[in-house]
Amino acid sequence: MKNVKLTKTLLIIAIVVLATVAFAAEEAAAGGASFAAIGKGLAIGLGLLGTGMAQSAIGAAAVGAVAEDRRNFGTALIFFLIPETLAIFGLAFSFLIN
After folding, report:
1. CA-to-CA distance for 66 and 64, rounded, in angstroms?
2. Whose CA is closest to 10, among 58, 57, 46, 59?
3. Burial of 20 (0-12, 13-18, 19+ CB in 10 A)
4. Is the pTM above the cut of 0.90?
5. Residue 87: enclosing H or E segment and its boundaries?
6. Is domain 2-96 classified as CATH 1.20.20?
7. Mean pLDDT by 10 residues, the chain (98 residues)
8. 3-state class (DSSP) for residue 60
9. Which residues contact 77 (CB under 8 A, 6 or more apart)?
10. Where are the chain's structural domains?
11. Contact 86, 47 (CB under 8 A)
């Protein structure tokens, strides 16, 4: 089961990287800076991929904790939102890349 999850994760990362390179090649053909586009795409894409992977595990645990005791809702919500900072940082860093 762990090999299947690892294979899926690596496949998603490969798709993100290849799509980023394809968009960068398209922008380079239009006269833009291709490496900046690759960096921007990777910053956003991998940040969102990490956020999704983290929130999937945290979300399941949070639902279980809240189902057990409703007072855990605030703590579960905070822990569920912490990985979202990866997406925000990825977006912020993509604006910093020229």
Report:
1. 6
2. 46
3. buried
4. no
5. helix 84-96
6. yes
7. 78 78 67 71 83 88 92 91 86 81
8. helix
9. 62
10. 2-96
11. yes
